[in-house]
């Protein structure tokens, strides 16, 4: 496992992060989820990402129990705040001081830790003054409940504003967590350049485009039983945009490229996002422990310019690149 600095800091994380969105306390049983976490640890992953909104706080509890007994100093544990939690009352959502200060305490309790390494604003909150949000984050850092601050799916303009306030408050805003893959490249035009200027890294989610880049979905054929495309708990909805025949045909053209590189299709997809120097880590998930070792082998892989050009030739024209696709909900859910 290779490690990279997160933003303009001395803090290192594993190039592969294990995330439990759409799986723990939701799609898979808790004992299997724990096996996945153990497999991640065995593979050299030290960085774990979750959020209080995942399975309405359930995913945090599963992760906390799975990591119980591990040396805390050897782990990097990330969580997020914004989405509706608990009974989803009018203050159970967003980035108000009230919700942030209450949410960090709940996350720490469920994760069974005194602090998180990175506390992230899961989306931008248009209904709360940014000054209020950043002051709450600064207080959490000063209380020792979080070491660093990050965000998720913020635009370049929002990153600039948040970073400026963080500097004024003397805290470190060092990361952004966007979607990024061969098929979803919306951060490249604006977010990445701004982040490079500000000293912010990307921790990217869905590097395999919800599993489509694994190549297991073949145009004209029934989707595999038990795959994400058949999951009615959220997986099928998330993957739907990628299930067009032209995209699936383009992905099939990646198979000989992966073979040429000596990689599996999942390894090629994860290695591709890691070629971007502004990406500190790629988040992977798993519903079975054996899936983890395959993705982890992408750490440290270097794809030369010829291979990168071949990948672009196969599916570059199918990728979404519009910067306007980086967005947060204009209103809260509650």
Which helices and strands, and how do they pair?
Layout: E1 3-5, E2 12-14, E3 16-19, H1 30-42, E4 47-49, H2 58-66, E5 76-81, H3 97-111, E6 116-121, H4 130-142, E7 146-151, H5 156-169, E8 173-176, H6 191-198, E9 201-204, H7 235-239, H8 245-252, H9 255-261, H10 265-274, E10 279-284, H11 290-296, H12 305-315
Helix pairs in contact: 1-2, 2-3, 3-4, 4-5, 5-6
Mean pLDDT figure = 92
Oligomer: single chain
Tell me the distance between the termini: 41 Å
What is the CA-atom radius of gyration, in angstroms?
19 Å
Q: What general form does the structure show?
A: globular
Low-confidence stretches: none
Largest sheet: 8 strands, parallel, barrel
Structural class: alpha/beta
Side by side, the strands of the main sheet go: 3-4-5-6-7-8-9-10
Fraction in helix: 25-40%
Tally of alpha and pi helices: 12
The tally of beta strands, per DSSP, is 10
Description:
The chain is α/β, with parallel strands linked by helices. It has helices spanning 30-42, 58-66, 97-111, 130-142, 156-169, 191-198, 235-239, 245-252, 255-261, 265-274, 290-296, 305-315; strands spanning 3-5, 12-14, 16-19, 47-49, 76-81, 116-121, 146-151, 173-176, 201-204, 279-284. The strands form 2 sheets. An 8-stranded parallel beta barrel has the order 3-4-5-6-7-8-9-10, surrounded by 6 helices. The protein has a two-stranded antiparallel sheet with strand order 1-2. The longest helix is centred in the N-terminal third of the chain and has 15 residues, at 97-111. It is globular and about 50 Å long. The termini are far apart. The model has no long low-confidence stretch (mean pLDDT 92).
């Amino acid at each position: 496992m290779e490690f990279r600095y997160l933003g303009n800091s001395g803090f290192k994380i594993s190039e592969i992060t294990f995330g439990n969105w759409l799986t723990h306390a939701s799609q898979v049983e808790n004992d299997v989820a724990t096996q996945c976490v153990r497999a991640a640890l065995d593979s050299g992953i030290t960085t774990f990402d979750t959020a209080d909104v995942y399975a309405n706080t359930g995913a945090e509890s599963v992760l906390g129990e799975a990591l119980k007994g591990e040396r805390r100093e050897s782990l990097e544990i990330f969580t997020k705040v914004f989405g509706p939690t608990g009974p989803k009352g009018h203050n159970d959502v967003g980035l108000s001081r009230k919700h942030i200060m209450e949410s960090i305490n709940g996350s720490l309790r469920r994760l069974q830790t005194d602090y998180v390494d990175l506390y992230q604003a899961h989306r931008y909150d248009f209904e709360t003054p940014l000054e209020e949000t950043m002051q709450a984050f600064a207080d959490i850092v000063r209380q020792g409940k979080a070491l660093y601050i990050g965000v998720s799916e913020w635009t370049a303009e929002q990153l600039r504003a948040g970073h400026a306030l963080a500097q004024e408050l003397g805290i470190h805003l060092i990361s952004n967590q966007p979607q990024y893959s061969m098929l979803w490249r919306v951060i490249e035009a604006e977010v990445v350049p701004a982040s490079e200027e500000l000293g912010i890294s990307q921790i990217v989610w869905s590097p395999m485009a919800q599993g489509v880049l694994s190549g297991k979905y073949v145009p004209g054929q029934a989707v595999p039983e038990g795959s994400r495309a058949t999951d009615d708990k959220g997986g099928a909805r998330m993957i739907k945009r990628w299930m067009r025949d032209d995209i699936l045909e383009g992905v099939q053209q990646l198979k000989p490229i992966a073979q040429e590189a000596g990689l599996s299709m999942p390894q090629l997809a994860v290695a591709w996002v890691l070629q971007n120097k502004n990406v500190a880590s790629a988040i992977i998930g798993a519903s079975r422990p054996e899936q983890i070792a395959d993705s982890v082998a992408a750490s440290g892989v270097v794809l030369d310019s010829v291979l990168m050009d071949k990948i672009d030739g196969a599916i570059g024209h199918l990728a979404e690149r519009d910067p306007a696709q980086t967005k947060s909900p204009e209103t809260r859910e509650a």
